[in-house]
Fold these 2 entries.
Entry 1:
Amino acid sequence: MASGSHQKHRVKFLHEKQIEREAKLLLDEWAEKGHEITVPIPLDELVEIHLQLPFEIVDLRSQFGGHDVMGAIWFDDGTIRIDASLDPHEYPHLRGRYNFTVAHEVGHWRLHRSQLLDDPNERTLFESGSKPAFVCRDGDSVPEEWQANAFAGCLLMPRELVFDEWHAWRGADAPVPDADLDVRPLARNQKRDVELAREALCKPLAERFEVSAHAMRIRLENLGLFVKEIEPGLF
Amino acid sequence: MSDPLQHFGSVLRERRLEKGFSLRKFAELVDISPTYLSLVETGKAEYAPAAERVRKMAEVLGADPDHWIALAGRMPEDVKNIILKDPEQMPALLRAAKNLTPEQLKKLIADAERKGKGAED
């Protein structure tokens, strides 16, 4: 997902570990209120009940133009709007993308709001509330969008819960090496074939977390549960 | 005074959040899409939800259904049928009663209920 109108880097560098910590902090806040954190993560409740952000599902694509607009966030009052093409009631098969888009906007709120409010040029842009701080589109990776994506992955698939669910599903903690995938031996070096085979394999886990197989695969790769080969003696 | 549908929408949203329901969860409970619920809550829906849908919303949120149906600018189905059954006298009764005080209305309702029950027996 990408910011529509700004090409320069609008945010400072954040390490993946910092992003993961931020996502965990949000879940800890929810847990402190007496809620149990289970799979799937209660994202809608986190947004509207815990963070108390105004939340709407509307036709954003007509408003901002382009068939690739997924979500947007306004920083004056935290309103999150998701495009109606992701409505989970109308399009249940897109539930994973809906969740990821909502979590992505929460990422902007938690990671970028204070940074942008500290920048006088940025602040005047959205102080009136008429302009969104971010309009997020499918398929780009400028730093602020990459960071919000990383946040979404960590929020929807928390490290500990992924390891627990992996163990329950696989019956062991061991990662899956490429050799165990259903990929033709000759194609094993072709990146996309391996990705597709990993996504096919992790689909049941993706359904547990209510995310797409694509998002699940990336998280599992980052957590070292999908590996090229297993180092001898580790498992 | 804001647009009546906008007012209904903001009352609905406030009550929904007070009761701890997310947009998606509540839409699921009253069997509508969250996109439509968003439109209703922001007063942007072309039409208010049907009376029976509003009743369901009020029941889930522990609000008074008749009050909410009126807020949404709809009429309860049973009231509509009563008027349709006697399209001359029932509107006349309502017009005649419109300036009564709440106390007088309460008495009138009690009288009517008693007489109605007598007529049934």
Note: The first strand of chain A starts at residue 2 and ends at 3.
Entry 2:
Amino acid sequence: MYAPSERDALARTRVLVIADVRLYRDGLADGLASHDRLAVLGAVRSGDEAMALLAATQPDVVVLDMAARDSLALVRAVRDTVPNAKTIAFAVEEVEHEILACVEAGVAGYVPCDGSLADVVAAIDSAMRDELVCSPRVAATLLRRATAVAAAPAASGLLTVREREIAGCIDRGFSNKEIARYLHIEVATVKNHVHSILDKLQVTTRAQAAAQLRAPTAARWRR
Amino acid sequence: MDRPIHGGARGPREHCGTFLRDHAMRRLRIVLAGLPPMLRDIVHHTIGREPDMQVVAELADAAVISLGGLDVAGGVDVVVVGAAPVHDAELAASILYQHARSRVLTIEARGGQAALYELRPYRIALGEVSPQAVVDVLRAAAVR
């Protein structure tokens, strides 16, 4: 039997804040802590500090400043360390490839660069209900992406897991340099994978590869 | 009424007492201008917890103040503005030209770096002057 204060604490959503800018880190922690239904477990600056606290505290939600260095890698690290935690990315550029990168890394919600503190709270509440607050344009982007992923297996079945990751980046219009940065690998390695993808799909350009991965059914009818 | 900065003819002890009395009665009046929503909320929330401070106005664009469009009854002690580092001095100066008794706190939106701007008397020693030198100095000051 829990005492009332313990019951309250258990009912609250437990939040960890990760932001490298002190004003946002402390300000977000204070602002979120002022909401009765939220309990802020801590506010840390870096991934290293976060990893220690994540394992110890097992938060329900991690609020992460995407302007921080290696933020996408940190999203993946949070997902791997505390699989049940939901990551809310804030200060996200509301452009297609940024949103998709966040979603594919594992965020459960996001707040754009011009978002407010209330938007962060709303994103946390939505994520806890397994819902996503987003603009109609972003919803359409996510639907397009889901369609492409569903259609891709026939062609991408030829590819390795890494090649499929890179093919997905090509489909989103990333350059080799951007893919290397995104996947944390060398540009030369990306080039090797791209050549392999083109060979396996028997196409000569990246655009053709992306088109084939998007529309395998149509490609089969043409054969 | 603006809070007096100098005690004038009053002694230090009297001045100190007056200051504390004024300080207790009157909260610092703060304007937020041109801050991105998240930063605005954080600053507003922080100020809201301080009993001696109050936000008296919020403006989406700091340029309104530069153009003389800020008219707050009771005056303004500090204007907090969001600014890019390369433009913050220019922005602060334009606000101080309109509100010379205020101070301007600029906060760079992305990096959270801040700077405080204020106008201060600037003394240029001229030494012993001739009547003509006085006239020359007046003319130079008018041109500036």
Note: The helical segments of chain B are 12-25, 37-48, 63-66, 88-98, 131-143.
